Amino acid sequence: MRPSSLVRAALALALLGASTRPARAQEEALEPLLAGLGAAQEVPAVATALAESVDGRAERLFEPLVVRPELSRLQRLALELALAQLPREAVLAPLRAAARRADVPAEREVALAVLTRLGTRVELALALELGAADVRGEGAPRERQKALEHCLAALLAREPGGVQLLCELVPRADPSTLAPALKALAVAAGDEAAARLAGLLPQASDAVRALVLAELGRCATRGVGLDDLGVSDLVRTQLGSADRALAVLACGVLEKLRDHGAVPELIVLLADGDANVRSRAHAALTRLTGLALPPEEEPWLAWLDEAMTWWDTRSEESRVALVSGSAAEAAAAVQELAQQRFRRDHVVQALELALARSEPDVVALTLTTLGSLDDPRAQLALQRFRDEAQPELRPGLERARVRLDQRVAATDHRKTLRIPQRTRTP
Amino acid sequence: MTHLCQSCSKRRGGALLLSVVAVMVVSILAAGFLNLTLSVTRRMNASADSARALELAEAGLAEAYTGLALARTGAIGSEAAPAVFGDGLLWVETIEHAGGRVELRSTALHGSGRATLGLVAQPTALGVGSLGFFTSEDLRLNPDVRLDSYDSALGTYADQMNTALNNKGIVGSNGDVSVASGNLIFGKIIIGTLGTVDLASGAIVTGGTSQRADDEVLPPVDVPPLTATTSLKFIGATPKIVAPGELAYQTLSVGKASNMVLTGPMTLVVDDLKLGLGAELVFDTTDGPIQLYVKNSLDMATSSIVSTSTQVTSDTQIYVSAPAGKSVNFGAKSQFYGFIYAPEAEIHISAQYELYGGLVCKELQLAAQGKMHYDLALGATLKSTLPVLQAWRVVEMPTSIATVRKDPFAVMGLEKNALLALGEAHADQLLDIRYETSGGATKSYLGLESEFDWSEVALLLYGSRDGLAFFLPDDYGEGDIVASDPLVDLVESSLSSKQLRDQLLAASPVSSDALIAACGRDPAMSSSDLDSVLDANYPLGSDVLLAAVASAALSSSALKDALIAHSPLAPEVLDAVLARQPPLSSSDLSNVLAKQ
Predict the structure, then answer these.
(1) Residue B388 pLDDT more than 80?
(2) A88 touches B: beta carbon within 8 Å
(3) CA distance B421 to B423
(4) Which residues of chain B have a CB within 8 Å of the CB of A279?
(5) Is the Cβ pair B256, A222 closer than 8 Å?
(6) Average pLDDT score over chain A
C-alpha cells in the first residue's frame, strides 16, 4: 500500500471514529429516558425530556427512529412527539436531507411518518419528494407508497386549501408518487373529488390518465360526481383517445356516473375497431338504458332516433300534464314517462313534479314508477319525498324503495364465473 | 217296404253328419272366440305391463330428480344390478352435458312392458372448487403447514377463526396423502380409492380420514380462443392500468419494482407470466371478475407482491394449462383471494403466498409454514333447492331390451330378493354427516354412504355428499349481521354527507350501530358533519369511539376533542389511538395523552 493510501485510510478511520463517538454518546443519553417509558400516559413527559436533552438538534432524535427498528411503539411515539417540540426548521432539516439521499430507503419512510405527525400543507411537496422511488423510472416500495398516502391524507385533512395545492403539484410530481397522491386526493376532496380528478385529465400522459380514470371509477361507485356535467364532459373526451384502453376505461366511468348524455357517443363506439371498446360500450349502453339490444350500431341508432323524437315532441306536454292536468292525464303522463329509456335523469326530474300533486293515487303511481327506475337519482327523489310524505303514502314509499333496491341488485351486470364442473362419471 | 228301407238306409248317418258339422262349427267358433279372448287378454296384459313400465320409469326419474336435490349423483342401479320396485325392475343412468346439465335416463321393465324415459335438469353445481385443496397425484405436505377453512359468504376469515366453519377444510388426493410433523389440518383428508395416509407424529388432523368413492377425473382447462400477437413487458414508475376486456399476450411481465393493475371484468390469456423483483400485480375485481389463463409458465419472484382488491374468492381465477415439467411458481408475497386450477401442472407455492379460496392441481409443493384457507363458498352451493327441470321425453329403448318381451327377472337371470329397493339403489357417494342418535348422542360419519346405517340417525345436524351440502344446521349462518336499525340503512343510502348529518341530528340520540355505520361509511361523511353527529350523541360508548378512531373521515382535531371529552379512555381505545392511520398530529396526541 502506498503512503498516500495509508494516510487516507487513517484519516477515514479517524473521521469514522469522530462521527460514531457522538452518536453513541447521544444514544447513551437518550437511552435511560426511552427505557423508563412504561405507559402511554408517560409519553408526553418523556417526549418533553427527550426534546430538552438534544439541544434543538433534531437529527439526534430522528436517527434513532431510522437505525433502531427494535424500538417499541411508545418509544417511537415519544421520539416523534419530542421532534414536534423542536423548532420547525430544525425538524424539517433532516427530513429534507432524507429526501435528497437515496442510499438509506428506511430514512424516507421514517421521515414520512414524522411529517404525518407534524406537517402542514406547505410540506406537501416535501412529502411527495420523500415518497418517490429510490431509482428513477421504477416504482416505490409498497410500504413507502402506503406511508405517502397516509402522510398526504393527514396533511390535507389538517388545513384547508391543501387539495388545490396538491392538484397543482401532481402534474410535476415523480411518477412513482402518483398512485398514492391520487388516492389521497380522492378521499380528501370529498364531494369535489371527481371534479378535481377529472381536472387532471387534459394535461396528463396516457399512463396517468389511466390512473385518473381508475380513481374516477372508484369515486363514481361511491356516488361522487354523479351529476357533475363538467366531470362527464372531461371523461367523454377520453372516448376518442388514441390509446383504446383509455376509451374502455372511460366507458366504464361514464356508466358508473350514469351519464345519459353520453349515450349517442357510446352508440358510435359500437362500430369501433377495437373489440374491447365495442363490448364495454355495449355493456355501458345496456346498463344506462336497460335495453337488451344487440351490440350493433343500427338498432341502437333507430331506438335513439325514436327516443329523441319523443323528447322533442311529447316531453313538454307530459310535464304540463303532470303539473296541471287532470288526475287521469297526470297518470297517463307518468306511465308514458316510465317507458322512456333515454335521459333517465330527466325522467326522474319530471316524475318528481307529480309527487307534488294532491291525488294520493297519482302520487302512489309515481312512487311505484320511481321504484322501477334503475337510477340512483330515483333513490334520492324518494329520499327527498320521504320527509314530507303523508302517513297514508308511507307504505307505498317503502314498497318503492324496496323495489328500487331489488332492481339495482338485479341489474348488477357483474358476470358470474363458473368454476369447471367435477366429472361425476369418470 | 224295401223301397222305404232303401231310402231309409240312404238317409242313415245324415243326422250324425249334421251333428258333426254343427259341433265342428261350434268348436271352430268357440276356438275363435277363445283365441279372440286370449288375444284381447294378452293385449290388455301387454298394455297394462307397458303402462306399469312407463309408471316405473317415471318413478325412477322422480327418485333420481329428488336425489339430485339432495346432492346425489342421479344414478340409480344399473343394467347389471337394477333396482326393484313393485314387480318390476328399473335403473337410471346419468349423462352429463355442457353447461353442467344432467340428462337422466330411466329404463323400466315390468312383465312384457318396457319403457325408457329421459329428463334433462340443471342440478346444483358441483364445481371442482368443492374438492378443497386437491392433487390428482400423491400429496406430500411439508412441515408446519396450516390448512383450514372459512365461508366467505358469511364473513371474513379472521371473523371465523376458531369457529366450526374454520374446521371444515378438505385436503384431497387421488393417491396417497403424507402429512408432516407440525401440520395443522382443520378438516378432513380424503384419499384416493387405493390411497393411504401417512400421518407423522405431531401432525394434527381434526376431521379424520376417508377414501373417496371414485377417483376424480379433472377436466382439462378450456382456454378461450384468443390469439396472442404481442407481449406486454412493463417496467415503469407509474402503475400500469390494464383496461377490462378479452386480452391475450405471448408474455406478460412486470419488471423490477413496477406495478400492474388488471381491471375486471377481464379474460386474459398469456403464454408466460413473470413478476420481477419487487414487482406488484393487482387483481382489481371491483367491477367484475378476472380469469387468467397461463398456457406455458408462471414465475413470481420471491420479493414480488400479488394482491386482490376484494375478498370474493370466485372473482379471481387462475387457470394453468401448462403441462407437467413447466415452471409454475407462486413465489410472491400475497394474501391471494381466488381459485387456482392446474390439472396438468406441478404447482410451487411459497410460505408467503397465503391462499384464501381453493387449489386443484396435479402436484403441489407447498413450502413449509405455508397457509391455505379453503373457502366453503367455492364448493357447496348452499342455497340450492330442487334442480331446474329443462326437458322431458320418451327415449327409444335399447334393442336388446325391447326385443325380448318376457318376464324381466327370468330374461336377465336376476333374483328379486337379491336386488336393492328403489330408494336404496342410488350410486354410492362419500357421505359426511353430523347427527344425533335416538339416545341423544351427537355423532359424525365420514365415509361411503353404502356403509352407513341411516337408522342410527334420529336428528340430522349437517350433511354433505361428495362435498356438496344437502342439509345445513339452523345456526350455520349465525353471525351474519342483519341491520335492524333503519338508521343504519339510512347511513348506507346514497344521501349526501350534509343530508345524512341533518337526518341523524334530527333523530338524535341515535343507536351505537348507526354511529358506527356513520364512522365507517363509504363514501365517508365530511369531518365536520361526522363531528356534529358524534357531538350530538355524547357520551359515546367504547365501540363508537373505536369506530371513530378507525375512521379516516374524522380530522385529527375533531377526533382529539371527542377523545378528550371521553377521557380517561379504555385501554383498547388508547391502543387504537396510538396505532391510528393517518395518525393524530403531535399536538393533538400530546393533549389526548395528557388527559389519561
Answers:
(1) no
(2) no
(3) 6
(4) 245-246
(5) no
(6) 83
What gap in Å lies between CA B581 and CA A246, rounded to an integer? 33
Percent of chain A with pLDDT over 70: 85
Q: What is the CATH number of domain B15-124+385-424?
A: 3.30.1300.30
- Whole-structure pTM value: 0.75
Is residue B281 within 8 Å of B305, Cβ to Cβ? yes
Give B60's pLDDT tier (boundaries 50, 70, 90).
very high
A75-102 burial: b if 16+ Cβ within 10 Å, else e? bbbbbbbbbbbbeeeebbebbeebbeee
Query: What pLDDT score does B67 carry?
Result: 85
Q: Is A197 on the interface with B (CB under 8 A)?
A: no
pLDDT tens per residue, range B321-352? 988 788 899 999 999 999 999 999 999 999 99
Q: Does A174 touch chain B (CB under 8 A)?
A: yes
A166 within 8 A of A189, measured Cβ to Cβ: no
Contact A150 B583 (CB under 8 A): yes
257-286 in chain A: CB under 8 A from chain B: 275-276, 279-280
Tell me the average pLDDT across B147-156: 89
User: Which residue does chain A place closest to B343, by CA atoms?
Assistant: A420
The verdict on A424 touching B (C-beta cutoff 8 Å) is: yes
Q: Do A207 and B238 touch (CB under 8 A)?
A: yes
Average per-residue pLDDT in chain B? 86
DSSP A88: H
**DSSP letters for B159-211:** HHTTSGGGG-EEEEESS-EEE-TT-EESEEEEE-TT--EEE-TT-EESS-EEE
B37-47: average pLDDT: 88
pLDDT score recorded for residue A15 = 41
Q: Which residue of A has its CA nearest to B359?
A: A419
Chain B touched by A77 (CB under 8 Å): yes
Written as one string, the DSSP assignment of A290-341 is -----SSHHHHHHHHHHHHHHHHHTHHHHHHHHHHS-HHHHHHHHHHHHT--
A137 phi/psi in degrees, rounded to 5: 95, -5
DSSP conformation class of B494: S
**Residue in chain A nearest B571 by alpha carbon:** A40
> d(Cα B369, Cα B337) in Å, to the nearest integer?
18
pLDDT of residue A33: 80
For residue A138, list chain B residues with Cβ-Cβ distance below 8 A: 235-237, 256-258, 278
Contact B590 A47 (CB under 8 A): yes
A6 pLDDT band, cuts 50/70/90, is very low
ipTM for the predicted complex comes to 0.81
The partner residue sitting opposite A419, judged by closest CB among B73, B280, B339, is B339
Query: Can you give the three-state secondary structure of B509-535, one letter per residue?
Result: CCCHHHHHHHHCCCCCCCHHHHHHHHH
Q: Do A214 and B259 touch (CB under 8 A)?
A: no
* Cβ of residue A394 closer than 8 Å to a chain B Cβ: no
**A172-176, A390-394, B128-132: which range is least confident on average?**
A390-394
Query: How far is B495 from chain A, CA to nearest CA, in Å?
Result: 7
3-state secondary structure of A422: coil
- Grid coordinates standing for B185? 389440518
**Boundaries of CATH 3.30.1300.30 in chain B?**
15-124+385-424
A105 touches chain B (CB under 8 A): no
Q: What is the pLDDT of residues B180-223, one digit of tens each?
A: 988 999 988 999 989 999 999 888 888 888 888 778 888 889 89
Question: CB–CB of A224 and B240 under 8 A?
Answer: no
Find the closest chain B residue to A149 by CA distance: B582
Tens of pLDDT, residues B393-421:
888 887 777 777 788 888 888 888 888 88
Q: Is B73 in Cβ contact with A211 (below 8 Å)?
A: no
B343 phi and psi angles, rounded to 5 deg? -65, -20
Q: How many CB atoms lie within 10 A of CB B202?
A: 12
